[in-house]
Design goal:
Structural class: alpha/beta
Shape: globular
Distance between the termini: 5 Å
Largest sheet: 8 strands, parallel, barrel
Order of helices and strands: EEHHHEHHEHHEHHEEHEEHHHHEHEEEHE
Number of helices: 16
Strand content: 15-25%
CATH architecture: Alpha-Beta Barrel
CATH topology: TIM Barrel
Helix content: 40-55%
Low-confidence stretches: none
CATH superfamily: Glycosidases
Mean pLDDT: 96
Number of strands: 14
Bound molecules: beta-D-glucopyranose
Number of domains: 1
CATH class: Alpha Beta
């Protein structure tokens, strides 16, 4: 059976600067990766040297058949010292945009993907009352330098993950704060920064398409688990989607399903945990932190099939999240800006893409304005605190020689992109 996608449907891949460029020395992550006791499997180091190899990397992606390349620009390189912008870094990213265009693709540029300059971290990062003003100035400088050829701008990648993983301490990421106040301050800061970033891009290019990319999971619960599920979903997703109602598009990023089931006897305790301010403030964050996997690894029983990340193998979760985004922001253009699987066995990636796209085809048939699908990730890369063990790439990278080899999944997905059709 052939499933054809609407004309003009966008196909592509995504990366993020710190995960691929290498030697991101002025960033908070670079410093954190070297601090004794940091829970990181290995430092990012040279990553996959995308900083130097972007031209051939981009050619390879275009050759495989993709039409969009989503990449991020690194604030720590562009503004290594507060207020001082590096023209060479800006020229480098302008060159990346030109390389994408010269290869017949369209660029989506992410302005912030988890990492920040060390000077901004010293101010408190997104908790700083100055964050929106500083982020606005940075975004404006980038838009001015990269110009009006950027097809889509993404202000902030997965604010919910950053807030919970870094500021509430769920993943032990920088800045490493662990209290509820820091978490809420960061969430507010990220919300304001999204709006400030969007304004900055629009001030330079009023016709630019601007949005944010949101980590969304297929949340489910039984009756007893429901208050906790709703609480988690609210602070991972809804508080950020709320400030995106003026955006031009919404980026949805989904990896799995998160079922929050609890025994019936636990229902009163869960209601109290979420409902009573002192428990919510002091006990609930401890519970969230104790689940360093962000609850993604909860699943229903030992027989559940899992990815290398330990998540449930649930490619169709992406259809559930796109439907939810469409319900919350009716009529808004939607784009899957990340969907992928950590898999050493590449045939699992082919199956994941196939099942994910089948589910999305039904979403489109139901009239939901889904405009594109970008796979995470173009290359195997630095998977944050887990280092290089996790393989999310369509393209294998030998980090000793830096040689790139497209996997069968890259050819498979490239064919879908070229033909706009999935054959099942
Ligand atoms: C992030 C990526 C990350 C991917 C896989 C998303 O949360 O945007 O940076 O590598 O998931 O875990």
């Amino acid at each position: 059976m052939s499933l054809t996608f609407p004309p003009g449907f966008l196909w592509g891949t995504a990366t993020a600067a710190h995960q691929v460029e290498g030697d991101n020395t002025n960033s908070d992550w670079w410093a954190w990766e070297r601090k004794p006791g940091t829970p990181v499997a290995e430092p990012s180091g040279a990553a996959i040297d995308h900083w130097n190899r972007y031209r051939t990397d981009i050619e390879m992606l275009a050759g495989l058949g993709f039409g969009v390349y989503r990449f991020s620009v690194e604030w720590a390189r562009i503004e290594p010292v507060e207020g001082s912008f590096d023209p060479a870094a800006l020229a480098h990213y302008r060159d990346m945009v030109e390389a994408v265009l010269a290869n017949g693709m369209r660029p989506m540029v992410t302005l912030h993907h988890f990492t920040i300059p060390q000077w901004f971290a010293a101010l408190g990062g997104f908790m700083s009352p100055r964050a929106p003003e500083l982020f606005h100035r940075y975004c404006k400088a980038v838009t001015q330098a990269l110009g009006t050829d950027v097809a889509w701008w993404c202000t902030i990648n997965e604010p919910g993950v950053l807030a919970m993983g870094g500021y509430l301490g769920a993943f032990g990421w920088p800045p490493g704060t662990t209290d509820t106040d820091s978490w809420h301050r960061a969430m507010n800061g990220l919300r304001k920064c999204h709006v400030a970033g969007r304004d900055a891009v629009k001030e330079v290019d009023p016709t630019a398409k601007v949005g944010a990319t949101h980590a969304m999971s297929e949340y489910e619960s039984n009756e007893a688990g429901r208050p906790l599920m709703e609480y988690l979903r609210k602070f991972n997703e809804d508080v950020f989607l709320e400030v995106c109602d003026q955006d031009d598009f919404v980026g949805v990023q989904t990896y799995s399903r998160v079922p929050i089931d609890a025994p019936r006897w636990a229902a009163p305790a869960i209601r109290a945990l979420v409902g009573l301010a002192p428990l919510r403030r002091h006990v609930l964050p401890r519970l969230i932190r104790s689940r360093t996997d962000g609850f993604e690894n909860t699943n229903r029983g030992p027989d559940v099939r899992r990815t290398d990340m330990g998540y449930e193998f649930r490619p169709q979760a992406v259809a559930a999240t796109v439907r939810r985004a469409a319900e919350l922001l009716p009529g808004k253009d939607l784009m899957v800006t990340e969907h992928g699987i950590a898999a050493t066995d590449d045939s699992e990636r082919i199956e994941f893409i196939t099942k994910g796209l089948e589910s999305l085809h039904r979403v489109i048939a139901d009239g939901i304005p889904l405009r594109g699908y970008l796979h995470w990730s173009a290359f195997d890369n630095f998977e944050w605190a887990l280092g290089y063990r996790m393989q999310f790439g369509l393209i294998d990278v030998d980090r000793a020689s830096m040689e790139r080899t497209p996997k069968p999944s890259a050819l498979f997905f490239g064919e879908i992109a070229r033909t706009n059709t999935l054959t099942v």
